[in-house]
Hints:
- It is a single chain.
- It contains 21 helices and 12 strands.
- The chain is α/β, with parallel strands linked by helices and 598 residues long.
- Helix 5 (163-180) runs antiparallel to helix 6.
- The longest helix has 42 residues, at 74-115.
- The termini are far apart.
- Pathway: Glycan metabolism; pectin biosynthesis.
- It is a single-pass type II membrane protein.
Amino acid sequence: MYTDPSGAVRLRKVKGRDLSASWVLEHPNNANSDQPQRLEILKDSFQSVELRETDELRSGEDDVLHPNQLSMSPVKLMRQKMRQERMNLRTAELLRQDKEADDQMVAAAIERSRNLDTTVKGKYSIWRRDYDNLNSDSTLKLMRDQIIMAKAYANIAKENNDTSTFDALMLQSKRSHHAIGEASSDAELQPSALEHAKAMGHILSMAKDKLYDCPVMARKFRAMLQSTEDNVNAQRKKSAFLIQLAAKTVPKPLHCLPLQLAADYFLQGFHKREDINTEKLEDNSLYHYAIFSDNVLATSVVVNSTVLHANEPEKHVFHIVTDKLNFVAMKMWFLINSPAGATIKVENIDEFKWLNSSYCSVLRQLESARMKEYYFKANDPSSLSVGSDNLKYRNPKYLSMLNHLRFYLPEVYPKLDKILFLDDDIVVQKDLTPLWSVDLQGMVNGAVETCKESFHRFDKYLNFTNPKISDNFDPNACGWAYGMNIFDLKEWKKRNITGIYHRWQDLNEDRTLWKLGSLPPGLITFYNLTHPLDRGWHVLGLGYDPALNQTAIEDAAVIHYNGNYKPWLDLAISKYKAYWSKYVMFDNPYLQNCNISE
């Protein structure tokens, strides 16, 4: 019961849990029995609290009570003091824990400093001068950006007939271009480059004050961006064309070598020498290799590297097939540079009379007018405007029967049971004889699969929009690599592999079933007939991928320079070239006469 501000009496119910501990509830019947006792207890409590508070006020010279505290009841003051004490205890505990954490951090830092290797391994100061970094290109980027801005302002100045600003911008742009030259980093810039950058900055500042207009500048930059994109696309097509041209062009030293060898073959009477013992050529207890190439130098590296790592060189027989233009040169090279112990037989593909258009589908197709038009006429997709997709197929190797002879191995070597096929752009780094002991499990071809990445599956090479392909092959089937393949020729004949190849070549007369080259028809011909070899036998990509794993390259039995960047070309990836060049006989007189050097 209480009175409100107007003086009216009010009643309000109060729950027991809302009352403080000082309240004592009594039954109405006992209301008067111990009232004096309760009053005495409250009185004593009040007096004791009052005495304590008075003592504290007297003892604390600096303690000042808030006016509200003076009006509080002693019980409330007591509760407030107890809360304050609990708060102080909690604060002290937190401070103690914080100190312990700091001590632990300091101890950990000391321990780390004891184990820290303080040896100076290079420049690490954050205050080093920028030009100490030889790869820095900040100034170069600045100057290129300035030239772009200068061109934009120059166009605006020309439209506004501001000839003085236009001339100043163009002149300074020319000077900046000259200072940059062919530089790819600040270290390669001319000494005057920084002064030119400062001068350009001054001119651009004046041009901005006179000519800057945001909408106009945005329009100019959009036009410049479109023009630059068109130029980049044109340069990309040009680059693709030139790379393909460089890849199929024979360098002058490599053209010189077969000419020198062919001349000496006849001048020095080597043409009168008899052939080697033919018994080894058909001995199935030996290790036989097939190499089809018109490149004398590349073939010599394959043979040299293979023999060098062979445990028993005298048991290795190399069957080399080349064209009639290089037959004499190839034969001459291995007559005078034959590796110790190994047997080498060089043959001319034009002497294979059975390889004619009536038997070979590819030769028959090449004789057709449509194929001649496709490959040799300028109005077909060999022009630069069409792009780079078909440019590589103008490479002569795609028309050479040396590239398709791999599908006729039993016809070329009818008395052999197994043969290891090697491309001429590989290097052998280990003994390959264990390959003849691999159980192919009834398969014809032993090869390293390349489907670690999705783009090396069948749908990358075959046209699955054609029902002839989609009905017979799995688009996700794993591709494999040509370049190092062990072939079971007995199983080849049993399964009529060459017949399968001919059938699919006839179906592909319109060239729509697969991409040109020898791998796609190989994937089709040996579909479900290829046994996967361990990846360590054959590592690919040295002719196009500069980011290969170095350990994988060094541990591989065979490394393959597939791609345009062949090791005998200036295009070669420099860090991979040493793996190939160490097997080249640079001290050979023929190589020296033709200026073939490291």
